[in-house]
Design goal:
The complex is a heterotrimer of chains A (310), B (114) and C (222). Chain B is mostly helical and 114 residues long. Chain B has helices at residues 20-28, 49-66, 84-101, 105-113; strands at 34-38, 74-78. Chain B has one domain. In chain B, helix 2 (49-66) links the parallel strand 1 and strand 2. Chain C has 7 helices and 9 strands. The longest helix of chain C has 17 residues, at 39-55. In chain C, 38% of the residues are buried. Classes of the chains: A alpha/beta (310), B mainly alpha (114), C alpha/beta (222).
């Protein structure tokens, strides 16, 4: 497949390799070293690193700057952009900012509601939604134009991604929603973390039946459980995540000191299973505050070393 | 049936007719206490009049607390129409409560001003 | 209608405590329907305030009146003759009425007695819920009659977001996910294919962002 941008992630996917991405959360302060440390832990095991954008509406160092930091380290960032905090002027502006440092990947998201975070009394913006943001980036890239119609000097060359959640409700529109995002111009998808393998494969199959898998790269999201408590928490308290009872049981039946190991084992098994599933073009490993496990997960899943591209 | 003579009874077809405003106005005019006596819950002749009355009494109690008159001066009681002695009992109980609380504070202010 | 909720009495007391002659002014329309500022609520507030001040040792004059509306000149003019009797007015009308009163009687302090909340419906007595945010450009034809601007916490125009669970919004389990409602409605109308139509970027200039708005109808002006 031909590539449309200089994105390393796009090149790897276009070459037919299984891509591996992971994510780093910026610090709640101005110490950029935190990003450097996290990035150094995972850089040899992933093709690109997502930087989250004020995740869960908790104010953190901004995603754009952390992405620039990664770029300065010679790494491949994925700029996550939520529409919650910025209007269309700021979003276009930040895209240009990213492009000025030759950041080539953007993930377009709505963002969790601000009531979850540290500024619940603030406003949310949502001047445009995540689908319209996808359209905006494509407009800026492919036609070199601002939303207002003027020409952009040195347009961004961004590989456009979005999230998909086969486990959110209602299930019946999850594939139409994917189709909608593709129509809007999305080129790669990172899914919410998968535990209910059956449902994920059903979603994938339904997407394939509509011919959508030829139009977009799907990266399967995985997250290792650190403990049985975490598995229970994710099952019961996090919207849009489904954890089958057998997995919770498996974690709970494991003695406490061995639970992290078991969680990583489950994750590796999931990846190895998904490698064989048609339509899966890569993995997005979300090891929140547990970045040190990414290397082991990637190695033991047979995804190391990462391929090189031009 | 004996009940204290300082109680003025106002008859209504159903306690559902009693509004927050009626109770407040009574206090404004100098009543030391107001109690609303309705049918047993579930037996209201008009189905839910006594439930409405209870909610309104509770509303009034909150207002009376906020303005410093005291919510305990307003109460809701339920009994069936045949329970004469119980009516007397409520009357005595209410009377005791109000005696302990003392007169409606705004009466004292009005007296001073006069 | 406009839905409002009574301000706590303590707050109103704080607003008027230095005045001696107060008019509590109600409105017979929206705030009557949502039981926040009609004749009855005026009566209750006035009685409570009189007793409060008496309890404080002051006999404050507190009068009651309810106008048909407070957003039309004709009705506000009805009290012109009596306004000089008062040194303050607590208006239980919505924010519109309070402001119009203040514009008309600009030498008398006009205080709000209710919090104006939203444009909504009476689901049942005692429960009013939001339906419209007056965005100025109605898109209900596209969404099966359910508004994502007012009923989606993120006002997403191509929803639902990933937080929709069991038909409820991620911010509150009791809040319906607007997009679930839209999808259900489109299904009922046999228009589920419309779901995949991409909603274009909204022109928010007709909404609050564009500044205070007006509607002009020259054909009916004198």
């Amino acid at each position: 497949m031909k590539t449309k941008t200089p994105s390393k992630l796009e090149k790897i996917l276009a070459a037919g390799h299984l891509a591996v991405t992971s994510e780093c959360g910026p610090p709640r302060g101005s110490d950029i070293e935190v990003i450097k440390e996290k990035a150094n832990l995972i850089k040899d095991y992933v093709d690109a690193i997502n930087i989250t954008d004020n995740q869960t509406s908790v104010t953190r160092l901004c995603s754009l700057v952390a992405c620039i930091q990664l770029k300065l380290m010679g790494l491949e960032p994925v700029l996550q952009m939520v529409t919650r905090d910025r209007n269309r002027i700021a979003l276009q502006s930040d895209i240009l900012g990213a492009a000025s440092f030759d950041i080539h990947n953007v993930l377009c998201l709505s963002g969790d509601h601000q009531s979850f975070g540290d500024c619940p009394t603030g406003q949310n913006v949502h001047d445009i939604d995540s689908m319209q943001l996808i359209q905006t980036v494509r407009l800026m890239r492919d036609q070199g134009k601002f939303l207002g119609g003027d020409d952009i000097k040195r347009p961004p060359k961004m590989f456009v991604g979005a999230a998909a959640n086969p486990f959110a409700d209602p299930f019946e529109i999850r594939v139409p929603r994917l189709a909608k995002k593709i129509a809007a111009g999305v080129e790669f998808i990172q899914t919410q973390c998968i535990y209910n393998m059956e449902k994920f494969e059903l979603w994938l199959k339904m997407a394939g039946d509509r011919g959508l898998l030829e139009k977009v790269y799907i990266l399967a999201g995985v997250t290792p459980f650190k403990s049985a408590g975490m598995a229970r928490y994710m099952k019961n308290r996090v919207p849009g995540i489904e954890v089958p009872d057998e997995l919770v049981k498996r974690m709970a039946d494991t003695p406490k000191e061995k639970q992290p190991e078991e969680g990583v084992k489950i994750c590796i098994e999931q990846i190895q299973h998904l490698k064989e599933v048609e339509g899966v073009r890569g993995f997005h490993i979300m090891a929140i505050e547990w970045e040190e496990m990414v290397s082991e997960i990637v190695e033991k899943s047979g995804l190391y070393p990462r391929p090189g591209v031009e | 049936m004996q009940y204290p003579s300082n109680i003025k009874i106002i008859f209504v077809p159903c306690t559902g007719k009693v509004d927050v405003l009626h109770i407040l106005r009574a206090f404004e005019k100098g009543a030391d206490g107001v109690y609303v006596v309705g049918c047993m819950e579930g037996d209201c002749h008009f189905i839910s009049g006594n439930f409405r009355a209870r909610k309104r009494v509770e509303q009034t109690q909150k207002i009376l607390d906020t303005i410093g008159i005291g919510g305990e001066r307003a109460q809701m009681y339920n009994l069936s129409s045949g329970e004469g002695p119980r009516f007397a009992q409520f009357a005595i109980e209410m009377n005791e409560r109000i005696r302990k609380l003392g007169p409606n504070p705004i009466k004292l202010v009005r007296k001073k001003a006069a | 209608m406009i839905v409002a909720d009574k301000k706590p009495i303590e707050e109103i007391i704080e607003e008027i405590k230095n005045h001696e002659k107060i008019l509590i002014l109600g409105c017979n329309e929206c705030v009557t329907v949502c039981e926040a500022g009609g004749k009855k609520e005026v009566g209750v507030l006035a009685s409570a305030l009189r007793m409060y001040f008496l309890n404080q040792g002051r006999e404050v004059k507190i009068d009651e009146k309810t106008l048909e509306r407070q957003c039309d000149h004709e009705y506000l003019e009805e009290i012109r003759d009596v306004m000089d009797q008062y040194d303050a007015v607590v208006s239980l009308a919505c924010g519109v009425g309070v402001q119009f009163m203040a514009e008309k009687y600009h030498t008398t302090p006009i205080y709000p007695g209710v919090n104006t909340c939203f444009l909504g419906v009476t689901e049942k007595r005692g429960l009013w819920t939001e339906r419209c945010q007056a965005c100025g450009e109605c898109i209900l034809a596209r969404t099966g009659g359910i508004c994502p601007v007012s009923r989606c916490a993120k006002r997403i125009l191509n929803g639902p977001c990933g937080g929709s669970t069991n038909g409820k919004c991620e911010i509150n389990k009791e809040l319906d996910c607007a997009w679930q409602l839209i999808i259900d409605r489109l299904k009922a109308l046999n228009k589920l294919d419309d779901y995949e139509k991409l909603s274009p970027l909204k022109d928010w200039s007709t909404e609050r962002s564009g500044g205070p708005r007006k509607v002009v109808r020259e054909d009916v002006q004198e």
